[in-house]
């Protein structure tokens, strides 16, 4: 879908005041919205995303999840420009196969993260417009979350929100999982049930206030027994 | 080019797009850690459309993006102190960024500017340093390592890389400290502070270094205090203070202190 500069880079429509001759340039990017979230626990990881695919004022699809399964222990969530999300996940799948064939083993979550960083930086001067978050289990079986920026800078976190509602979700996670700005509170480790419930609550809040988030929530829970998927409906307006 | 060569060896070549399509803007919010690229931003549209006027005031104000990193030489080596905040515009993307990159057990690099630029090129530098070691059967000097880095990024001068880094280490000639950036600067010195909070940090370190012959503990406290004061006054710096000490045996991580804790600590000291 061609997008002109009228949309601006974050998908918000610009004012329609006539200011004089306006030159429209072809932009190779478009903003398709969506929010992704990942939480790492003691022996599990959760990657969740909404399933709305939008562009400007329209919704293209209500069933377009942004979590992609990479291996039995790793799931990636990609939001931003859907075209780049699709190509990027295809490239990662191809690289995973190549690694498996050369090294006779599956890539670990940490290795996938390091590889994704170089894949993204390879396009430093024409970036993939994708905000990635990888969730999975590390070699010791502990939950791991890796968050990226569009050109490949990454770090390991305990929890991270990315995409259009990230600025709304991240402070809530900082408070509930990171216990930030809470005094005299016991730091209890996060159980899987509590984490799943928190993710659901957090997305319900995001759907209330972010136009690009809604329709349904897809949760992928990664444990040593495999990947379980759950779908929860969200506001459709 | 170095970038294409490195990535080509491991994968299908997707990196050629960058050569032809350089005109396309990356006004995406890439995580910024420090300085704005001074010498002309090649990544913007050639024609300013009316639609970009909404961002006009932001683009005209050239402010340094958030970070404070500092390093100084003293009698017993080099102290490296950094904050840990990464911002994407006005949003704090992370408070726990590792801005000191461990190139090898006796060389450290700091990160300011584009996070991806710094971590990628310094990781590449680590690879080059290892190759040097294998070829020459001896450790690389700080001067040579910083020169390698400077030459690598000089090929991309003007293309929009944003990187301001200090290469710190200990080699045959003693403690080494070089400042290298994406504009092509490479300078040797005894004290550097880089980033939006650098001015505040300079003030503290300059006054502390007047007394000659600091002990290791005094120097560490000085570095920590300088970063803390910078985070206090600079909105774009914060998080934690990561402190490293480089000595003749290599580097070691001295401490990681949350700025909030430091504030209470210094507050108690002044109250006493």
From TrEMBL, chain A:
Keyword Cytoplasm: yes
Keywords annotated in UniProt: Cytoplasm, Nucleus, Proteasome
Name of one Pfam family that matches: Proteasome
Primary location: cytoplasm
Gene Ontology terms: cellular component: cytoplasm; nucleus; proteasome core complex
Subcellular localization(s) per the UniProt record: Cytoplasm; Nucleus
GO biological process: proteolysis involved in protein catabolic process
Stated family: Belongs to the peptidase T1B family.
Function according to Swiss-Prot or TrEMBL: Component of the proteasome, a multicatalytic proteinase complex which is characterized by its ability to cleave peptides with Arg, Phe, Tyr, Leu, and Glu adjacent to the leaving group at neutral or slightly basic pH. The proteasome has an ATP-dependent proteolytic activity.
Summary of subunit composition and partner proteins: Component of the proteasome complex.
Protein name per Swiss-Prot or TrEMBL: Proteasome subunit beta
Species this protein is from: Oncorhynchus mykiss
Organism lineage: Eukaryota, Metazoa, Chordata, Craniata, Vertebrata
UniProtKB/TrEMBL annotation, chain B:
Natural source organism: Oncorhynchus mykiss
GO molecular function: threonine-type endopeptidase activity
A single Gene Ontology CC term: nucleoplasm
UniProt cross-references to PROSITE patterns, sorted A to Z: PROTEASOME_BETA_1, PROTEASOME_BETA_2
An individual GO BP term: proteolysis involved in protein catabolic process
Keywords: Cytoplasm, Hydrolase, Nucleus, Protease, Proteasome, Threonine protease, Zymogen
Subcellular location: Cytoplasm; Nucleus
InterPro entries for the chain: Ntn_hydrolases_N, Pept_T1A_subB, Proteasome_bsu_CS, Proteasome_sua/b, Proteasome_suB-type
SUPFAM superfamilies found in the cross-reference section: N-terminal nucleophile aminohydrolases (Ntn hydrolases)
Catalytic center residues: 67
Reactions catalysed: Cleavage of peptide bonds with very broad specificity
Family: Belongs to the peptidase T1B family.
Protein name per Swiss-Prot or TrEMBL: Proteasome subunit beta
Subunit comment: The 26S proteasome consists of a 20S proteasome core and two 19S regulatory subunits. The 20S proteasome core is a barrel-shaped complex made of 28 subunits that are arranged in four stacked rings. The two outer rings are each formed by seven alpha subunits, and the two inner rings are formed by seven beta subunits. The proteolytic activity is exerted by three beta-subunits PSMB5, PSMB6 and PSMB7. Directly interacts with POMP. Interacts with ABCB1 and TAP1. Component of the proteasome complex.
Record function comment: The proteasome is a multicatalytic proteinase complex which is characterized by its ability to cleave peptides with Arg, Phe, Tyr, Leu, and Glu adjacent to the leaving group at neutral or slightly basic pH. The proteasome has an ATP-dependent proteolytic activity. This subunit is involved in antigen processing to generate class I binding peptides.
Domain of life: Eukaryota
Keyword Protease tagged: yes
């Amino acid at each position: 879908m061609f997008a002109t500069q009228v949309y601006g880079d974050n998908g918000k429509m610009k004012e329609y005041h006539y200011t004089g001759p306006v030159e429209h340039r072809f932009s190779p990017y478009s903003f398709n919205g969506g929010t992704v979230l990942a939480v790492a626990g003691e022996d599990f990881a959760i990657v969740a995303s909404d399933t709305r695919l939008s562009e400007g004022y329209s919704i293209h699809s209500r069933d377009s999840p942004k979590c992609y399964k990479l291996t039995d222990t790793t799931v990636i969530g990609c939001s931003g420009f859907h075209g780049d999300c699709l190509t990027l996940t295809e490239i990662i799948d191809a690289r995973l196969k190549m690694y498996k064939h050369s090294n006779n083993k599956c890539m670990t979550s940490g290795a996938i993260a390091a590889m994704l960083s170089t894949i993204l930086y390879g396009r430093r001067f024409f970036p993939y417009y994708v905000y990635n978050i990888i969730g999975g289990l590390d070699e010791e079986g502990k939950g791991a979350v890796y968050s990226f920026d569009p050109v490949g800078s990454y770090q390991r976190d305990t929890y991270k929100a990315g995409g259009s509602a990230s600025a709304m979700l991240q402070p809530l996670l900082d408070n509930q999982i990171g216990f930030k700005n809470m005094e005299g509170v016991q730091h209890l480790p996060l159980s899987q049930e509590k984490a799943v419930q928190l993710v659901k609550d957090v997305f319900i809040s995001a759907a209330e206030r972010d136009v690009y988030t809604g329709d349904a929530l897809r949760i992928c829970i990664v444990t040593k027994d495999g990947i379980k998927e759950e779908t929860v409906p969200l506001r459709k307006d | 080019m170095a970038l294409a060569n490195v990535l080509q060896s491991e994968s299908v070549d997707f990196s050629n797009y960058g050569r032809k399509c350089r005109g396309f803007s990356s006004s995406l919010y890439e995580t910024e850690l420090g300085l704005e690229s001074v010498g002309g931003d090649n990544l913007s549209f050639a024609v300013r459309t009316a639609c970009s006027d909404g961002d006009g005031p932001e683009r005209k104000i050239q402010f340094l993006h958030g970070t404070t990193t500092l390093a100084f030489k003293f009698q017993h080596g080099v102290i490296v102190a950094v904050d840990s905040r990464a911002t994407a515009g006005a949003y704090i993307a992370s408070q726990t960024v590792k801005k000191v990159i461990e190139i090898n057990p006796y060389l450290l690099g700091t990160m300011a500017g584009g996070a991806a630029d710094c971590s990628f090129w310094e990781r590449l530098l680590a690879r080059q340093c290892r190759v040097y070691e294998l070829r020459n059967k001896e450790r690389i000097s700080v001067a040579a390592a910083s020169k390698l880095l400077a030459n690598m990024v000089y090929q991309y001068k003007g293309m929009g890389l944003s990187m301001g880094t200090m290469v710190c280490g200990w080699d045959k000639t003693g403690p080494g400290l070089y400042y290298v950036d994406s504009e092509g600067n490479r300078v040797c010195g005894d004290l550097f502070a880089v980033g939006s909070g650098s001015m505040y940090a300079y003030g503290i370190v300059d006054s502390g270094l007047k007394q000659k012959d600091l002990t290791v503990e005094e120097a560490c406290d000085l570095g920590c205090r300088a970063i803390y004061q910078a985070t206090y006054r600079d909105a774009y710096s914060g998080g934690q203070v990561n402190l490293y000490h480089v000595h003749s045996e290599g580097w070691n991580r001295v401490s990681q202190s949350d700025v909030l804790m430091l504030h209470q600590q210094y507050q108690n000291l002044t109250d006493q």
